Amino acid sequence: MASRTDQEYQDLKKRVHYYLVERLDEEGVEVTNVTNDMLTTFVQTNVSNFVAQNRIPLSAQNLADLTREIVDEVAGFGPLEPLLSDDVVNDILVNGPQDVFVEVAGVLQRANTRFIDDDHVLRIIRRILAPLGRRLDESSPMVDARLPDGSRVNAIIPPIALDGPSISIRKFTQKHLSAQDLVNSGSMTAECLDLLISLVQGRRNILVSGGTGTGKTTILNLLSQYIPREERVVTIEDSAELQLNHPHIVRLETRPANAEGSGRITARELVINSLRMRPDRIILGEVRAGEIIELLQAMNTGHEGSMSTIHANTAKDALVRIETLLAVNGYDASERAVGRLIGSSLDVIVQLTRLPTGRRLVSEVVAMRHDSEDAYAMESLYRADREVMDEAESVLGEGI
């Protein structure tokens, strides 16, 4: 519960914001047509006038903070602005006006910021979505979109969200961790890195498996760096996150339906189309639905070295999840035929784990062995230190 002083400050901020909007309209100032310095000066002058006219006791520091926050309200994304500009913040989660959390170094923590009320959260959501041409209202109460900088935003509002509007933002970073960074941080050993490089260069079909926030995209991006330069690569993603420093790459991105419910382009359609583009390898950002059918068939018919990620806690779980996706998306075959398809298509599963400390690591690398008796026969090529694995397994056990 916010303190009375904090609530009074939020009420003041709301009054000042409305006053600034009126002043901008009266003077015909277009926020998008003025520099940030000019806007800051305009806000500073008018905030000072408002405070003086209403005889509001504010210290110089509080006045400066209020001015900065009002600039963010007028020209940016309000309370989200400092979080979006903070490089150490990876995820921003807004559960309500007073419940804002961030993920820093893999650990969730409460942020020292808040919104005024539900209407304030909703206003910021709509400001985020406005340039993207996306719709959010009672008839379409949830939206998933990508910001111009590549960050992924998901918003959901009542009546679906029972406790008020909610926002989840996965920030996009231009500074991806290098292989040496991952070795130095203990995410993998040098031997593990050498193994992964040899698997990529040996054109093995690789599936990166892990739970939410384990670094699947980071590892996929890393592996992709070692694809030979003479090969043609097609990437398919829901939200473009991969940054491949490669001379011959075609990047494809899915598209959601428009306001009328048409125009959607799925990952499955893009995988099918990519097969007509003469790729040497296909990199699918994440397996979620029917695209798994086409991806496995592509892996099995001349597109060796393809890669993707999947949500699963263990390598065995990843295979079970693939089976489920095949079944629910209409792949009509016997259990034996499904096992043979999966076993003959996938070569390697790279399993990732996140520890309670926030540390992410490659816990295991397993090779699929094509056994006539067991389609899912596996051989461990790498396994993290026993001490680390005991900790990882205890975490998984607690979650069961």
Please provide a written account of the structure.
This protein has 400 residues and is an alpha/beta fold. 39% of the residues lie in helices and 20% in strands. The chain has an 8-stranded mixed β-sheet with strand order 9-8-10-11-7-12-13-14, sandwiched between helices. Strands 3-2-1-6-5-4 form a 6-stranded antiparallel β-sheet. Helix 1 packs across helix 3, helix 2 (36-53) crosses helix 3 and helix 9 (267-274) packs parallel to helix 10. The longest helix has 23 residues, at 4-26. The radius of gyration is 25 Å and the shape is elongated. The model has no long low-confidence stretch (mean pLDDT 85).
SSE topology string: HHHHEEEHEEEHHEHEEHEHEHHEEEH
CATH class category name of the largest domain? Alpha Beta
Distance between the termini: 33 Å
Q: What is the makeup of the main sheet?
A: 8 strands, mixed
CATH superfamily (homologous) name of the largest domain: P-loop containing nucleotide triphosphate hydrolases
Provide the CATH topology of the largest domain.
Answer: Rossmann fold
Radius of gyration, in angstroms, nearest whole number: 25 Å
What would CATH call the architecture of the largest domain? 3-Layer(aba) Sandwich
Number of strands: 14
Helix content: 25-40%
Average pLDDT, all residues: 85
Shape: elongated
Spatial ordering of strands, largest sheet: 9-8-10-11-7-12-13-14
Structural class: alpha/beta
Query: How many domains, as an integer?
Result: 3
**Can you tell me the residue ranges where pLDDT is under 50 for at least 5 consecutive residues?**
none
Classify the beta-strand content into a percent band: 15-25%
If helices are DSSP runs of H or I spanning 4 or more residues, what is the number of helices?
A: 13
